[in-house]
Amino acid sequence: MTTSYTLEEVGKHVTDKDCWIVIHNKVYDVTNYFELHPGGAEVLQEYGGLDATEPFEDASHSDSAWETMNSLIVGELAEEYRQADHVYYKTTHEHVEAAPILAKTSTAKRIKSLFTKALALSLTGSLVYFGRPLLSTRWLSTGLLTNQLLRIRIGKTSTDFWYGYLSSVATTSLLVMSAGYLAANKLSSGGGHGGPSLPARSKPTFRTLKKPSAITPPEAPILATRSYRKFPLVRKKELSPNVYLLVFSLPSPTAVLPLPTGQHVSVMAEINGQSVSRSYTPISNYKDPGVIELVVKVYPTGLLTPHLGNLNVGDAVGFRGPIGAMKYKSGLSKRILMIAGGTGVTPMYQVIRAICEDEADDTTVTLLYANNNLEDILMKEKLDAWAAAHPGKFSVSYVLVNPPNGWKDGTGFVSKEMIQQKLEGGLDTKVMLCGPPGMVKIMKTHLSDMGFPVPGAISKASDPTLIIMAALQKVYVVGVGLTKFIKPRGLVDYPDLGFEAGVKALLDAGINYDEVQQGIACYVYGDSTCGQRVFYRFGMTQIPIYNVNNNCSTGSSGIHLARQLISHNAADCILVVGFEKMFPGSLKTNFPDRTPPNDRTVAMMRATRGFSDTTPRAPQTFGNAGREYMEKYGATADDFAEIARINHAHSAKNPYSQFRDVYSLEQIKNSPMVHAPLTKLQCCPTSDGGAAAVIVSQKWLEAHPHLKSQAILIAGQHMATDSPALYSRSAIDLVGMEMTRTAARVAMSEAGITAADVKVCELHDCFSANEMITIDCLGLSAPGKAHELVRAGGITFGGQVVVNPSGGLISKGHPLGATGLAQCAELCWHLRGWATNRHVEGARYALQHNLGLGGAAVVTVYKRADGKLNGLVEDVAGVSKSKYNPAVEAREPTQEDVATVISRTKSSEWMVTEKKIQAQFQSDLQAAVSYFDNLILKIECLVENPSLQPKDNPEDQARLIVLATAKFNTPRSQDEIGLFSNEVLDGAGLKQGFVRDFLTSVRRPKPNIKLCSNPILPILLFVTDAKSTSPIFEHYRFQDLTSLPYGLWTSYVNRDGKHEFEDGYRLFLPFEIGVAGFARLTDDTLVGENLESGQARQCGRSNDLYQTGYNHYIPSHEPQLGDILNIWQSLVQAGLWEVGEQGVVGGIEKFKEADTDDGFYKYQLNVKW
């Protein structure tokens, strides 16, 4: 049953949080429509609590408008409050030019008016004449007419008197008339060119909406927006059959119609006892004082138009306005293409006139005007005259269905080819379309096929007869850049990651930061405005900078935002930078004191397959989805393991990958189980890293033609969020697969391709189960058959489609904000033909999928700008701006590179000159840690499977560690030979080679880095060729050398040692503690002396300045190397350590506060476990 409301009840709903309106006696709740309303939220609130039938009918609506309206109905007006429905018609825009005409008056009235005006002027002239000396004072500014007044003689004779007096009257008349005209012109047009131009109305959201302020209208306004004012007809002319020019008189001959260009009025007449109204756009403007001019086409079956056609001079009709959201202003677009049919030319006429009459408006207008017959062309003489007078500004082409003999212009109907010809070269073009509904429908189809978006449902701009469409620019990627992806050890901070990636992208594009018009920063973990912290290092150019966070799809969301901005002409060149500095271990919430966005997902998991609070959420979520895929379609655990095997194999050729080791299927399956069917090697790691892309418009690319050979077109793209299917109780749906299906369908449809056209794909394989499901959802396999494609080798080189040639998230790494941009870089390199060590043959298109739970899925289709296949480029270094091939070699940018791309005019030394670890030492550190991480991963995998025999593969260093671990856990004498002595290695069957050298020698700076042998296994950092003779090192016996190299070491010591600090890692500082002026305790004991004496200090301080933690080789203990590395980095950043050409250095100035017990605690920074 429909609910009835009184007007008083409706009137209570008038706020931005609760707004109701009445239309045709039905009550609508429009609160949630504020942000979507094309005319602006303030329009809806203006009519809050009121009957809005009349203004609703003043705007025109598409066929789908009523569907939107029906969804907002909450009831209807009670019977006693209902109004009789008026008859309304959809808005039309019909105009023709006419000469201004003043209303005729009687002779007696004219004589009386002239006498009154003459008397007034005479009195004014008298005042001017007798008060002339005052005019020379500062009270009146000079000008042409005031100067003339100052030159009038003050009469000394009768003749002089009358000469001066009459001159004063005449000059004053001109001055008053000019001032009146200028004042009227200023009031009506705002002082600008081209007629009245009110500011374009913004579209505030309901969050920023303010109650409209009360405006006191002037007395007796010419037009009112809510009430009709009647004006009489003073002239009528038939322009063509059933088409009339109607001229109505305003209240005075000097009155100017207060109507901005583009808006219209509502015309109302009483017909057979009914109020019938319809909207028209007057063709008269501020240069036509005293009149309103309309062109009306009479429709025999109508009500209002026959009435208007039968009007006689002296008859009056009502006018109300201004109405409509569209207001033309100078500079709306560089080019406007107008497509008109029949009387649809009339709204175009108004805009054409405003542009041609405004010398300051440099808009170029092209009119494509269609009619049946020559005599149907309205205002042809005027249009041709304007085209002749403004050849570079306005042009017109006519199209006739029935052309006369000798007709040289277009014939037939307006075709797509005609439109394309007029649009050629016009990258910043808006299209105005007005004509019969059938013509408009066809034109909309043509324009949509050419990349013009279809307008919304309710808007003046989406009127069935008048449509304004802006061309979407094509968008390209012209530059990409990456850092290495590394484990989150705190080695590099996010400003460095983002800056390095951005430098490489700008260098790749060959541009300077001064060309960047907007910046987009993509990250998940970090405070607000981290983006500004990164971008300011390029330059402080005051461009807009957006900070984007959309979970794991953040990087692609940034690309999507850039494309939206550029395609809609908001920018031409945008730098998108993604970066992430993550915490070690599984993902955790940053805000435990508030409701997490995934709380309903966890609740659904508990209600269906159960949820463990001790296992990380992400592997449970995707592991459950994998189980469901196995149950529904017959996939096996081996199929998921095979996906991981392939990805790890792919990453071996990617220099940016976090892990580059190759694993067998057995190793994948036997790695530690995380959440069945997912083992550790099937899960992506947390990572630190950065990636960036330079994204530009077609217009920008046309201005940089040398980049076309490397430009990659974003041919299709779509971002989708969750549907109700998310909570269908399906584990597969719970990981957002409906988002993926929708985004893929829309993106590929826009690009005009199918999944069969894709040869290379980067998809979101945070877990192997997600890759399996995504292959299915993207359509790369038949539904439910993704595992069969995997088994057939269809997702690797030589197969149907190469999936994740970069190694994917599983092996390359997953720094959340950078992942989507890293996928983009990989695919761009493939389409350019630069990925020479992992080239995918015959790729014309590349597909990208990036998923974020919570949720958002972004699918993007890329293609070469020239549409060709990705032929292999042999000499990439010869064409790359970097002078090397960044797809196969990961180099850090040089200072010269940085100087090339940072702003030349707005850079800040304060931002640019910051220094941390120097590049050569940073890369050595990363190389060492990367090798160590890979080694530990293998150890963990094999410890989980002790049945494997160590000698099955004697070349595998991981098996050596298993052997060493077993030996390590047995009692030993203090004099026993170390773990990696020649005896142990010979017993394990290890041959001479790199592995043996690694375990028995000293690691020095690249290219020949080695480790030492004795009962400790160290990792070398920041090392140089310099030697150290510190007495600290004499405590240890070395098989191959007498002293350690100068550098920073961490060492593994005996588990059964005498001191607590021996149960873990020890940090050897790269300077001689206890010697020559370094830190001492308050008792004057040198720091570190405990190591020499073998005596532990009280209160557990035996490890003063030696950071300790449990080691990776004991399976029962949690690895803590990441914490140690974090502390090293913290010490460098805090200024306690410095990095110079001789490695890490320090001195008494750095540790002077450690001379007290309290100060010493401050610098101890023990590793936590």
Give a verbal description of the structure.
By secondary structure, the protein is of the alpha/beta class. It folds into 5 domains: 4-85, Cytochrome b5-like heme/steroid binding domain (Flavocytochrome B2, Chain A, domain 1); 86-212 and 220-329, Elongation Factor Tu (Ef-tu), domain 3 (Beta Barrel), CATH 2.40.30.10; 335-470, Rossmann fold, CATH 3.40.50; 617-685 and 715-874, Peroxisomal Thiolase, Chain A, domain 1 (3-Layer(aba) Sandwich), CATH 3.40.47.10; 919-1164, no CATH class. The chain contains 38 helices and 35 strands. Residues 86-219, 456-465, 913-929, 942-980, 993-1129 and 1136-1169 have low confidence and may be disordered.
Overall geometry = globular
For the termini, the CA-CA separation is: 67 Å
The tally of structural domains comes to 5
Helix fraction, binned, reads 25-40%
The fraction of residues assigned to DSSP E strands is 15-25%
Catalogue the unreliable spans: 86-219, 456-465, 913-929, 942-980, 993-1129, 1136-1169
- Strand sequence of the main sheet, in spatial order? 21-20-22-25-19-26-30-29-27-28
Would you count the extended β strands for me? 35
Rg of Cα set: 40 Å
Q: Helix segment count?
A: 38
Alpha-beta content class: alpha/beta
Averaging pLDDT over every residue, what do you get?
Answer: 71
Largest sheet: 10 strands, mixed
